[in-house]
Amino acid sequence: MFSIAPSARLRPSPFYEATVKAGVTSFTVYNRTMLPTGFGDPEAEYWRLINGVSMWDVAAERQIELKGPDAARLAQILAPRNLTKQVEGQGKYAALCDHTGTLINDPIVLKIDDDCYWFSIADSNMLFWARAIASERGLDVSVEEADVSPLAVQGPKGEDVVASIFGDWVRELKYFWFKPSKIGDIPVMVARSGWSKQGGFEIYLMDKSRGSELWDIVAEAGKPWEIGPGNPNQCERIESGLLSYGGDTDDTTNPFELGLGKYVDVDVPDDVVGIEALRRIKAEGPKRQLLGVIMDTDEKLEFPNIWFDIQKDGIRIGDMVNCVFSRRLEKNIGYALVDMDSKPEDAVNVRKNGKDIPGALTALPFI
Amino acid sequence: MFSIAPSARLRPSPFYEATVKAGVTSFTVYNRTMLPTGFGDPEAEYWRLINGVSMWDVAAERQIELKGPDAARLAQILAPRNLTKQVEGQGKYAALCDHTGTLINDPIVLKIDDDCYWFSIADSNMLFWARAIASERGLDVSVEEADVSPLAVQGPKGEDVVASIFGDWVRELKYFWFKPSKIGDIPVMVARSGWSKQGGFEIYLMDKSRGSELWDIVAEAGKPWEIGPGNPNQCERIESGLLSYGGDTDDTTNPFELGLGKYVDVDVPDDVVGIEALRRIKAEGPKRQLLGVIMDTDEKLEFPNIWFDIQKDGIRIGDMVNCVFSRRLEKNIGYALVDMDSKPEDAVNVRKNGKDIPGALTALPFI
Question: Quick check: A1 pLDDT over 90?
Fold first, then answer.
């Protein structure tokens, strides 16, 4: 392990001081922002998410705000998904693509009102991207990174914690829907969302000076449910089949390869970025597919998280794009971005430094 | 200090294994790539750069390659600097701006040939930016991140080391000029360049599978000059007045505020991105300027590297945007992004957590 320190270039999150007090031990960098990756007890952090409730500083999930008369138009131009029926308070997952149909981010698009949208982004610069498209097309819209920082409350007991703060109305929120609220005078949005399959909410802090206060309020409210700190969990998210843009994708990956075809509406207008390419890819069919691979070894594999070749009958069929030891399956599992001939249960080998590890493909999610 | 580990999302550099062998202890993340920030002895690493020769893994300085019939046209559209006289083998520093004239990156633009340019970029996503502009304008050019990874050799003895590898012709290279070459069969470009004012070269590795080999060759060649590992040095670069895009800039900083006006040619064609805004800013004059600030305290200040208010006569005049204890001046120094009324030698206060640290403005560079 190596050390990292915040710097002027790597932005601290509004919850940074609070996570330091909570004992954060490691970080990654996401959208040029420090994102906690551990609090010293990976075992407890995992099971807290699976069985209890965990709170996460995910301020690195930045919000790109489109505001002005052409906000709705720009949102639609950027997202190859039909947004015409989206209503205020509703979020929609979208697979943003470039002009060649390659995935460049997979945000939740939140409709704040008719003239304001937030793109709650994965790890790539959608601020510059959206500004480029808006300016080149002469749209009447401002594009800014908003002062909005999500704090996630994840796990099966998350709803009880969030309801204890905001009231029982949060129990009625549908997935990806959100509602403005306040905690005292701290302005927030409350969304049913989060990068796990264990259920939960994201509280979008709308005043970066109030990060420690919000953290402490949630930590205090969660005590009856033994809330504790955590972070987006690599093991749980792979078990659950969730995508990490930039981790599971390369410079040519399109949404159809990733099983995201259901989020691509090819009947959106012709001015949507990449739609022509996406129609063609859909018509021709993708060249690769995302499956799982379960490795047949008792050893807990210590993979550096880079891509490895997957072979079937001695022939390369694709890449293992991420790998983790599953705490629930007690097996080494990974994602397999492989050719279209491959099928679940196919016997394969993962080649690591010239050695073969036997395994089998499987459908996603693992659990 | 906190720990960080490579992941599939944070790309290792081709020199990663070599830097681990060389004892790297800390990293930052730059262009989604792991960038070494220390090898355990900051004092020695600093003086090696000032008095000797240091080798740096700066693969995180990615190369965005524009290739095709419209490559030159796209390079000019992206860069508000006259590139018409740029010749093959010449690099030019350019202040890339968005449509509002805000700085979004400050690469070296390398002209490889008439149909191929590399943008050797700072820490922001110019791949997506260049693709957006190229596609929206219907240009006939491919935009890719090339398989090119710089290894810097910096310090007054750097030229001797690089000449011992490639021959004395490197001594004739002008600043930012470069030439293709080979070490054995490893393809490289050799450029007189680097993010320090101590002189030196960047060897652009053009085959990512050869990183450890190249590192070892340079380390071996440098032995007579006692070469050792290092990295872009925050202390030296601030003493020398070098800019860190994203560290010293915010979301509204324009080149004129940073003293980069001499790199902006307002007579470039009207289709250059941001040129209309830059002409207006130049005509009106910038609202801020970048100066230095020297703090008057014997204590070595331990600043977290975030921005702090600078006040003059109790009134806020701008921000200290970075701060370091200068090993040569033996003083705490920082950059001051302040209003246009401010002058070198003005007495100011830097406000840190409600306390004032007295100091004075100064012209850049410090040394």
Answer: no
Residue A77 CB coordination number (10 Å)? 21
pTM beyond 0.95: the answer is: yes
Q: Is any Cβ of chain B less than 8 angstroms from the Cβ of A8?
A: yes
Pairing of strands B116-120, B108-113: antiparallel
pLDDT tens-digit profile of A305-319?
677 899 999 999 999
For tokens 């290739």, name the residue: B67
- The C-alpha atoms of residue B249 and residue A8 are separated, in whole angstroms, by 9
Average pLDDT over residues A16-23: 96
CA distance A319 to chain B (A): 12
B63 inside 8 A of chain A by CB = no
Q: What residue in B sits closest to A126 (Cα-Cα)?
A: B128
Q: Do A12 and B304 touch (CB under 8 A)?
A: yes
And the tokens for A212?
Answer: 């420690």
Q: How far apart are CA A339 and CA B69, in angstroms?
A: 34
Percentage of residues in chain A with pLDDT exceeding 90? 91
Nearest to A71 by CA among A158, A154, A130: A130
Structure tokens at B133: 């502009």
Q: How many CB atoms are closer than 10 A to CB A335?
A: 26
Residues 136-165 of B with CB under 8 A from A: 136-137, 144-145
b (16+ CB within 10 A) / e for A106-144: bbbbbbbeeebbbbbbbbbbbbbbbbbbbbeeebebebe
pLDDT at A301 over 80: no
- A247, A7, A26, A155: which is closest to B305 by C-alpha? A7
For CA atoms A268, A270, A272, A277, the dihedral sign is positive
d(CA B51, CA B67) in angstroms, rounded, equals: 40
Compute the Cα dihedral for B157, B163, B169, B170 and give only its sign.
negative
Q: Which residue of chain A comes nearest to B134, CA vs CA?
A: A99
Q: Where are the beta strands (DSSP E) in A31-129?
A: 33-38, 54-57, 63-67, 91-93, 96-97, 103-105, 108-113, 116-120
Pairing of strands B228-230, B54-57: parallel
Residue A129 forms contact with B (CB below 8 Å): yes
Q: Does B9 touch chain A (CB under 8 A)?
A: yes
- Run of H or E including B127: helix B126-136
Structure confidence at residue B305 as a pLDDT band (50, 70, 90): low
> Which chain B residue lies closest to A20 (C-alpha atoms)?
B2
Mutate to test the interface with B, among A1, A4, A273 (most CBs of B within 10 A): A4
Mean pLDDT, rounded, for A139-148: 98
Q: Average of pLDDT values for B98-123?
A: 98
Helix (H, G, I), strand (E, B) or coil at A250: coil
Contacts of B96 in chain A (CB under 8 A): none
Question: Is B5 within 8 Å of A1 when comparing Cβ atoms?
Answer: yes
pLDDT tens-place string over residues A223-263: 999 999 999 999 999 999 999 999 999 989 999 999 999 99
Query: Which residues, in sequence order, are bridge partners of residue A202?
Result: A152, A191
Per residue, what are the HEC states of B188-243?
A: EEEEECCCCCCCEEEEEECCHHHHHHHHHHHHHHCHHHCCEEECCCHHHHHHCCCC
Predicted pLDDT at B208: 96
Asked if B7 lies within 8 A of A28 by C-beta distance, the reply is yes
Could you tell me if B305 lies within 8 Å of chain A, comparing CB atoms?
yes
Q: Which residues in chain B have their CB less than 8 angstroms from residue A246's CB?
A: 8-9, 32
Verify whether the Cβ–Cβ distance A28 to B8 is below 8 Å: no
